[in-house]
Specification:
Order of helices and strands: EEEEEHEEHE
Strand content: 35-45%
Radius of gyration: 15 Å
CATH topology: Pnp Oxidase, Chain A
Number of strands: 8
CATH architecture: Roll
Number of domains: 1
Structural class: mainly beta
Shape: globular
Largest sheet: 8 strands, antiparallel
Helix content: 10-25%
């Protein structure tokens, strides 16, 4: 079993080359902390852009509110072709407005979707960047 824990205290936790292909995955599971301290898990679309893992979220959703209150989070990416292999990217969420949908349009291009169709009238999008503190890369098939 290969299990790598990549943690550079005080530095950016790097994503190992052995698991970089997972950054092209279609889906990931975002874990946030709810107001009652319970974990809240949601499947999300994401991009790996400029060396950072980023999400486009609707600002009215529970996961976004959780991140605004408590930015600790985890993004779990499972290799669907080999479920013994996965990566867990942990860190803190940095939330920035995406009023012009510039980032949302890039995410939509990956998924062949217009994210505006998922938002109601008056709702807004934000860019959530996971500022990595730990990366756990696991391959139990070895």
């Amino acid at each position: 079993m290969l299990a790598e824990r990549i943690c550079d205290h005080g530095l950016v936790a790097e994503i190992p080359e052995t698991h970089r292909d997972l950054l092209d995955a279609k889906f990931a599971t975002l874990a946030t902390l709810a107001t009652d301290d319970a974990p809240q898990l949601t499947e999300v679309w994401f991009l790996y852009e400029d060396g950072e893992v980023k999400l486009s979220l609707n600002s009215s959703r529970v996961k976004t509110k959780n991140l605004a209150a408590r930015p600790q989070c985890s993004l779990f990416v499972l290799d669907l072709a080999n479920p013994f292999r996965y990566m867990d990217v942990r860190g803190r969420a940095r939330i920035e407005p995406d009023d012009d949908y510039a980032f949302a349009d890039r995410v939509g291009a990956k998924y062949n979707s217009d994210l505006r169709e998922h938002d109601g009238p008056g709702e807004a999008r934000v860019v959530v960047t996971i500022e990595r503190t730990n990366v756990f890369a696991v391959d139990m098939s070895r």
